[in-house]
Amino acid sequence: MNKPSSILFICGMNAIRSPMAEAIAKSILKKDVFVQSAGLQEGEHDHFVDAVLAEINLDLRHHQPRIYNEMADGFFDVLVALTPEAHKRALDITKTSAVDVIYWPTEDPTLVKGTRDQMLGAYRDVRESLTKRIRDEFLP
Predict the structure, then answer these.
(1) Region 134-139: what's the mean pLDDT?
(2) Domains parsed from the chain with CATH numbers
(3) Which pTM value belongs to this model?
């Protein structure tokens, strides 16, 4: 795959995984790569995301969740789906367009129960996994 000029990360609610991927990608990819995120439905802001991104000097406190249906069709070179539902939807919508769809199954950190530290650990795992995948896929 050629290096894309625009990437859209998609998950269920654009509250945790996809906005985290957006922030990480914007911080490590060249500035000429347009990066956005969206969810299949609108979610609510998650403060654990703020905490684990602050650890790597990123800030998502002002992120407003976006819904995939509101995004311009055909504008992105690559759609990166982070959940099975987002992957299915991306494939359905892009059947007739020249858009690459990539599926990166990414755990939902909200499913981890326990202490605050255990929950933060799950969010850190998602952050590190996304960082590695973004570097491996989109950096030379």
Answers:
(1) 94
(2) 6-138 (3.40.50.2300)
(3) 0.93
